[in-house]
Every structure is written in structure tokens, then in C-alpha cells.
Amino acid sequence: QVRLVESGGGLVQAGGSLRLSCAASGSIFSINALGWYRQAPGKQRELVAISRRGRLTYADSVKGRFTISRDNAKNTAYLQMNSLTPEDTAVYYCTADFTSWGQGTQVTISS
Is the pLDDT of residue 89 over 90? Predict the structure, then answer.
């Protein structure tokens, strides 16, 4: 398993943007699935986006606003988030093959 560390969260106004990063302790070249989940207060953790064998999948709620990417040379995955709304407020987690998880980064969107 690789160790994952998220960063890039913060407080922004509605309509703003953030880019989250997920740095892995080792090579991500052989990792099939790199994804982002989020958990809002009082809600279950939900899938946001996943990159799996070149295929990108997004939750309906973020399609057209969020973009997942990965840089194998930097062992890092990213989540570009645009047109943010208060409903995007949550702790965001990255995962590698659903077996390794980061500690999460808080994203708060003010109205």
C-alpha cells in the first residue's frame, strides 16, 4: 500500500475554484484506480471522481465542474474543482485502488 497525503483544501466563496492534490509515497504508475471521495457532515462518504485504466468517472453532481487527473512522474493525483457551491463543502479523501486512503482535506464553500 502507498501512503497518500491530500492538500489544497480551504475556504473559498461560491463560484470559486480549488485544486486538490494527492501525493503518494511511492510510484502510482501501477495503481489502477485513483479516486476522490468526499464526506459532508452527517452524510455518507460518496464518490466524486475516479481515474481507472484511463477511464474517468464523475458523480453527476460534479460533472462539468470537476476534473480528475494524475501525474505519474510526480506520483500525484489532482482534483480541479470549479464553480464551487456550498453543497461541495466536505472533507475530501483520495484513494488508491480503494485500499489506501489519505487523511482528508477540508473544503468549505461560503455562500
Answer: yes
The identity of residue 66, as a single letter, is F
Range 48-77 average pLDDT: 95
DSSP the chain: ---EEEE--EEEETT--EEEEEEESS--TT-SEEEEEEE-TTS--EEEEEEETTEEEE-TTTTTTEEEEEEGGGTEEEEEE-S--GGG-EEEEEEETTTEE---EEEEEE-
104: left (phi over 0), alpha (psi -120 to 50) or beta: left
More confident residue, 27 or 46: 46
Question: What is the distance between the alpha carbons of residues 6 and 45, in angstroms, rounded to a whole number?
Answer: 16
| Residue 69 pLDDT greater than 90, yes or no | yes
Q: Give residue 48's pLDDT.
A: 98
